Amino acid sequence: MRVAVVGAGGVGGYFGAKLAHGGTDVVFLVRGATLKALRTHGLRVESIKGDFALDRVQANDDPTAIGAVDAILLTVKAWQIPDAVVSLKPMLKSDTAVIPLENGMEAPQQVAQILGSKHALGGLCGIVSFAVEPGHIRHIGADPFVMFGELDNRPSERGEKLRAAFEKAGVRAEIPPDINRSMWSKFLFIAPMSAIGAVTRLPIGAWRSMPETRELVTRALREVLAVAAAHEIDLGDDAVERTLDRYDSLPPESTSSLQRDVMDGKPSELDAQLGAVVRMGTEKTTPTPVFDTLYRALLPQERRARGDLLV
To answer: Would you say 47 and 73 are in contact if contact means Cβ atoms under 8 Å apart?
Structure first.
C-alpha cells in the first residue's frame, strides 16, 4: 500500500514512522518546521516499546505532488479537519480510504460530507505520545493500537490491507465488529480525562488519586454513557469501572493532548470533545451538567487562544 499521513505529531509521527519502518510506502503531508525537519534529519522515535530512527522519510506540503495513495491517516487536531480534508482531493483514487485517528466522534461525517461517503472510514488509536520537537516523537505510555473500519461495518479489502500493514510494522491493529461502538468507547475514555486534566492542569496521577476529582470524573463518565445510550450505543454495564481501571493503569505523568494544548495557551480540541458531549446530549435531551460546566469554564481561554478574545 501507499499510505499518506496528514500530520507528524505524537500520533501521526509515531504510527507513520512505524509503518515506514515496517516497509510500507509512507509519505507525510506536513508543512513549515516539521517539513524542514523531516527532509533534513528524518524522523526519530523514542518509545517504551523500543527506540528507532528513519534517516530518510518522504514528506511534502503539496497534495498534488504527493499524488494518489491507497489510504490517508488523518492525525491533525480535530478542529483542523475540515480544511485538511478539502486539501486531500488530489490524493484520492476511486477507493482511497480516509481514516481519522483524532479524538472525537464527528470526523468521519466531516470526511463524508467533503469527499463523499465512499472514502470515509471510522478510526481511533490509543497511545500517550507527543512531539518533543519537529521530527522527534516520544512515546511514554500505553501499548499503541489502532482500530478502523467501514462505517457500515462491512468487511473490505482496503481495510484488511491496511490492517496487515500495521501488523507487519508491529502495531496492534483491529477491525472491530462495530467501529461506531469502538469510537464511542474511546470517546468515553478520552473526553472525561481531557476535561478533568484541562481544568485541574495536573497529570492524571494527581487527580485520579483525590476522592473529589475521582468522583467528578466518574460523574463525567456517566454523562458520556448516557449520551451514548441516547444514540443507541450500549457500552456495557461495567464501562465506568473499565475506564477507571484504564486511567489507573496509565503512567502518573500522563496528560491528554487537549490538556497540553490548554496549558500551553494553544487552540485545542475543546469543541470536538467537551463541546461535542454537550451538543450530542442536547440533541437527545440528555443532561450533561459536568461537561456543560467544564466546557463553559474553559471556553474563554479557548477563545483567547484562537484570537477571538483580546482581553
So the answer is: no
Which grid coordinates are listed for 176?
472491530
Could you tell me the three cell numbers for 70?
A: 491507497
User: For cell 500522563, what's the residue?
Assistant: 254
- C-alpha to C-alpha distance for 249 and 20, rounded to whole angstroms: 29
Q: What is the arithmetic mean of pLDDT over 279-306? A: 97
Q: Rg for the chain (alpha carbons), in Å?
A: 19
Mean pLDDT taken over the chain: 96
How many Å apart are CA 178 and CA 174, to the nearest integer? 11
Average pLDDT over residues 230-255: 95
256 touches 129 (CB < 8 A): no
User: How far, in Å, CA of 284 to CA of 78, rounded?
Assistant: 23
Under 8 Å CB-to-CB from 282, ≥6 apart: which residues? 288
CA nearest neighbour of 37 among 149, 147, 131: 131
Tell me the pLDDT tens digit for each residue of 138-150.
999 889 999 999 9
Residue 142 to residue 189: CA distance in whole angstroms: 13
The answer to whether the beta carbons of residues 128 and 194 sit under 8 Å apart is no
Q: Using CA of residue 21, residue 25, residue 30, residue 32, what is the dihedral sign? A: positive
Distance between CA atoms of residues 71 and 60, nearest Å: 16
Q: What are phi and psi of 73, to 5 degrees?
A: -100, 120
Q: Is the dihedral of CA 178, 181, 187, 189 positive or negative?
A: negative
